[in-house]
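Hi there,

I know you've been waiting on this one. I reran it after we fixed the sequence typo, so this is the corrected version. Both the input and the resulting structure follow.
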Amino acid sequence: MTQRSAPPERVFAGTVGKGHGLDGSFYVVAAVPALLTKGAALWVDGEEEPRTVERRAGTDAKPILRLSGSTDRTAADLLRGKSLEASNADAPPLGDDEYWAHELVGCAVSAADGRALGEVVELMGLPSCEVLVVRGVEAFGELLIPLVKDAIVEIDPAARKVTVDAEFLALDDPA
């Protein structure tokens, strides 16, 4: 069992998307629904103090929020593209096979045979699963590696490495 690194003080909750209506509401892109509840405190990128979620509508897939201090469409438009963060204390506990994005970003990725494939630059959510976005080895270009048991041999955040099944991923040796 590997030791987990401590989670950050705040965790990513989503990104402000396009406005919805005229009251300052907006869609949230790449949302973490469990963190987007009415009354929750959220930090907007670049702001020192948190804002309160005054309205939560929509679905978990397409949540709609209105934050304190956002009273019209113009205010919502000024937030567009900014990330939202919640206190780590409000984050749901992680399961055995779950990781914080900060634990994986920066990890070296290699095939089980030892071939270097690059470094994790992002954890991206897709409709079917989350994927590791891996860059660094020019011969492979950018790789999208699904976080599924068939593709992942081992994740060791403490050692900053991820080992994958190159055969499952159909990664032929480029040399």
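Quick highlight: Helices lie at 73-79, 101-104.

Best,
R. S.
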